[in-house]
Design a protein that fits this description.
With 527 residues, the protein is of the alpha/beta class. The chain has helices at 12-25, 30-48, 72-87, 104-112, 123-133, 153-165, 204-207, 241-247, 273-286, 298-304, 333-343, 354-361, 379-389, 401-414, 451-465, 477-496, 508-513, 515-526, and strands at residues 7-10, 64-69, 91-96, 116-118, 137-141, 169-172, 194-198, 201-202, 214-218, 236-238, 263-266, 291-294, 309-311, 322-325, 349-351, 369-375, 417-423, 427-431, 436-440. Strand 11, helix 9 (273-286) and strand 12 form a beta-alpha-beta unit. Helix 2 crosses helix 3 (72-87), helix 9 crosses helix 15 and helix 16 (477-496) packs across helix 18. It starts with 6 loop residues before the first strand and ends with a helix. The relative contact order is 0.10. GO terms for molecular function: ADP-dependent NAD(P)H-hydrate dehydratase activity; ATP binding; metal ion binding; NAD(P)HX epimerase activity. One of its GO terms (biological process) is metabolite repair.
Length: 527
């Protein structure tokens, strides 16, 4: 999910605190009705997409909606939404999963609107009812912010039936079975076509964006949460293309090949020369300043990009404002020695691929450092690092990914290391212990060998540029890393969908060739 503007997501408890005064000050159920109207509006859009007959005035005829209604306010949102759909001319059915705890006023409103109410006795009864009704759209109003763990048996069974019937589902607030804070998807979770949330995004909308369908945010009059002292609370942010374009470094009037920030790349080996080419070429495509290459693949690198300044030994590389090390280097003892020297430099360092494995096996090479260190592991590399530096967080990626990343960063910080961790995936997580980002690439076209080498080169170039005039502060390193990831994702999409085709698999070289166009596109969005 790539998007133009940044958006922020919050913990459930903070959202409840922000909602409470607004709900208390409003007339009874006014905020709930406003939220329900937004849900009904999305449901109507879903139904109209199926070419159901309408009269042009908002009425829909011959269509039906069914709501899976849980207890409390989330169920109340669903009941009021069904009542709104009934006023649009649709036949609506409320399937109460907790009849004794249904929202009484919303249930009465549904009945006044002519809605039918069903109280099935168990999972089999729900299945029979759904198969008989075959609604054009279903509402998931089972649980909301208070959700934890997998849906109960009846709800999980209903989710499976709706999926089998291919019924489009609109989730109210958050899909049932998705943890609102961690984004963990539990067995039996609803798979919606769209999710409508209210006022503020929940963390799960970023951490589990691929499980939420199309996201809609309805304004219900609440502002950003604050703590007891009025300070902003912790957020999880997703950087948009406009921010990436605005922050991408371009040469100024007085810039030269040095002032834009020189990045040095230690990558490649006789076995993996391609890694050297990909990382170095990516850096060239990301910056107008000098790119230095160090390693045994000078000939291949210079044949590919003759403007690169190449050498064989890291200590003779020349001055650089940032280093990248790891892609294709190998994991022998000489790699540990080179990494120890690179990590001794008082500039930002990006470690990827083999460098991460070596770091996990030789933790003594990582000493206190104030200069930023960016680690870019995939899941396997992350676990290797966690087993060495944060054993309590090893093996946790199948659950709370964001919590595991924060745990590793916290442990590194306790060692005096100023680290930012980028955990690769369709939804990439970036965290330095203070600021966290979750970036959905929107596609998985970049899941190809060498793609990470390209990303490492891009990040290094951005960090080198940010060491010069107009440099980012240390606290903004995660943002710089995030904008590199955004452009990397845009480049992957451009390469896969070249010439307007629906999309086809690409190699890292194709992604590499699209970086220039991706930078131009995000800069155009920024205006």
């Amino acid at each position: 999910m790539t998007h133009r503007d940044d958006f922020r997501a919050y913990y459930a408890a903070d959202i409840r605190s922000a909602e409470a005064p607004v709900i208390d000050a409003a007339p009874t159920d006014a905020v709930m009705r406003r939220a329900a109207w937004a849900v009904a509006d999305v449901a109507r859009t879903v139904v109209r997409a199926q070419e159901v007959i309408g009269d042009g005035a908002g009425h829909i005829y011959g269509a039906s909606a069914a709501g899976l209604i849980g207890a409390g306010d989330n169920g109340g949102d669903g009941l009021y939404a069904l009542a709104d759909l009934a006023h649009s001319g649709m036949a609506v059915h409320a399937i109460l999963l907790a009849p004794d705890r249904a929202h009484s006023r919303a249930l009465a409103a549904l009945r006044r609107a002519g809605g039918r109410v069903h109280e099935p006795a168990g999972a089999e009864a729900i299945e029979e009812r759904l198969r008989r009704l075959r609604p054009d759209v279903a509402l998931d109003a089972i649980v909301g912010l208070g959700a934890s763990g997998p849906p109960r048996e009846m709800a999980g069974h209903a989710a499976g039936i709706l999926e089998e019937l291919r019924t489009p589902v609109v989730a109210v607030d958050i899909p049932s079975g998705i943890d609102p804070d961690t984004g963990v998807r539990h067995p039996g979770a609803i798979r919606p076509s769209a999710t409508v949330t209210f006022g503020l995004f929940r963390r799960a909308h970023l951490l589990a964006s691929t499980d939420c369908g199309a996201l809609e945010l309805a304004d219900i009059g609440i502002g950003a949460p604050a703590d007891d002292r009025g300070r902003p609370v912790e957020t999880l942010t997703s950087i948009g293309t406009a921010t990436a374009g605005a922050l991408w470094p371009v040469p100024g009037v007085s810039d030269n090949k040095y002032s834009g920030g020189v990045v040095a790349i230690r990558a490649g080996s006789q076995r993996f020369p391609g890694a050297a080419v990909l990382a170095s070429h990516a850096a060239v495509m990301s910056t107008s300043a000098m790119v230095r290459y160090v390693g045994p693949c000078r000939e291949q690198v210079l044949t590919d990009r003759p403007e690169i300044v190449a050498s064989s030994v890291v200590t003779n590389a020349g001055r650089a404002q940032a280093w990248v090390a790891g892609p294709g280097m190998g994991t022998g003892p000489e790699t540990a020695q080179e990494l120890a020297w690179i990590l001794s430099q008082d500039v930002p360092v990006v470690l990827d691929a083999d460098a991460l494995r070596v770091l996990a096996e030789h933790p003594s090479i990582l000493r206190r450092r104030e200069a930023p260190l960016v680690l870019t592991p995939h899941a396997g590399e992350f676990d290797a690092l966690a087993q060495t530096f944060a054993p309590a967080h090893a093996g946790l990626l199948a659950g709370d990914r964001a919590g595991a990343v924060r745990g590793l960063v916290t442990e590194l910080d306790s060692r005096g290391v100023n680290a930012t961790v980028l955990l690769k995936g369709r939804i990439t997580l970036i965290d330095d212990g203070r600021t966290a980002f979750a970036q959905d690439a929107g596609t998985s076209w970049s899941a190809t060998p060498g793609s990470g080498d390209v990303l490492a080169g891009m990040i290094g170039a951005i960090l080198a540029a940010r060491e010069g005039p107009g440099a980012l502060s240390t606290a903004e390193v995660p943002r710089a890393v995030a904008i590199a990831q955004v452009v990397h994702s845009v480049a992957a999409r451009l390469a896969a969908e070249e010439f307007g085709r629906p999309g086809s698999p690409i190699g890292a070289s194709d992604l590499l060739g699209a970086i220039g166009e991706a930078v131009a596109k995000v800069r155009a969005v920024a205006g």
